[in-house]
User: Fold this.
Amino acid sequence: MITASAPGKIMLFGEHAAVYGFPCIVSAVGERISVSIEKTRDNIVSIDAPQCNNTRFIEEAIHQGRIAWNIHHEGLHIQTKSMLSSEYGFGSSSSVTVATLMALSGMYNIKLPLKHIFYVAYRTVQAVREAGSGFDIASAVYGGTILYKKGGGVPETILWKNANAECIIGYTGIKSDTPSLIRSVAEKRKKYPERVERIFSAIGNIVEQVKGAITHGDRETIGKFMNFNQEYLRDLGVSTQKLEALIEAAKKAGALGAKLSGAGGGDCMIALVLRGKRKETEEAIMTAGGQIMRVHLHAPGVRYETTDDQQELFIVVDSNDNVLGYKTRIECHHDKTLIHRSVGALVYDKKGRVLLQKRSMTKDKHPGKWTVSASGHVVKGESYDEALHREMKEELGVDVPAMFCKKIIVNDGLETEISSLYTGIFEGPFHPNPIEVDCVVFMNRIDLLQNMSSGKIVLTRHGKEALIAVGFLP
Ligand code: MEV
Assistant:
């Protein structure tokens, strides 16, 4: 099973003009949606998505992903978990689309730049409904706070250091209908092309200028631009009485600026405050009928969630490898006295070079460090041999004939393992699983020592001791 998650978003500046190619500023929020995919024996795609009121985005993402990456048809079961409510306008359909595509590409070992995930996600959303500017998809993919422009390639990241302390988000209690608001602006543009174009380019200018104010931490200017942006949105006819009431209340309570966020018609407003004014501004928004949303800005973009099941049971032994009982992964990884069983495979080529693997960034321990060809824990009910062959298949995509060599005890400061080392000769091909392994390379001793001393390769404690135990490292 593979799990990926993506964040929701909140528009800070530039809504509506963004649909017509003007820049906007958007931040990813801490609320995420996660999508897990596993293969099944039947030929159908089953979806269990209790919090999504529309599974079309998931179905279409699977369809588009299969076409884009040439994936053969087979049975999949998809399960989502969401902290996002579609009600507040934080963008659950773009987040679920992006997380589904990331999980699908991981399931089939397809390594892609993020911009590729963005393109396929954009195509997916477009096939289900009007995709708009795509700012919500970009936010789900890249995370952080970004300056996004439709058709403008990879967005620029903006550092807004104190955004979480300075921004207040108030919900009107009214769900807005984004497509019909986009349509109403389009009609206005048709009727009054010059006037609306002028508004759009003024909004575009605000976005370009506020970017500098944000990076310099110039709060007075950011607040001023929020107010200007709101005036233009009002002119476009997308503000409402309720939004205006919350915005006015925030400004009266001392906010430096306030505006609606998103399509308008309801959903949320955003206010900028100095630290000392936060409490009274929040109270004023609530008195005006708003609900304060405790969202965290600048959240990370789409990512794989750890594949390491923290509740898996490991075999706890004494220093002579006699079984004492079973403890979970999380318990074993936080108690050095719990010696538990593991395996390590050292695969050589015919020249005597050893295959080293770089651990993926989704591992719960030592992400990005290098180790032996394949390794892992022995779980309850498994023998050393069974664990070794399972790990080789899971990590390298092949099962290599291997012989037991020796056992070592390794203490890396956090956990203590008794590890059975095995050696074998196999030259590939290997099919590393990107969820577990970043890459594999055969290396001779001199190159390894050089890479270690230049800092290019940092070995895990287990990797280093295993290589010393088999005589590969001095
Ligand atoms: C909606 O939250 C923001 C809009 O600009 C639409 C879009 O950019 O896709 C109105």
Remarks:
- The pocket of (R)-mevalonate is lined by residues 11, 15-16, 18-19, 132-133, 135, 178, 182, 262-263 (CB under 6 Å).
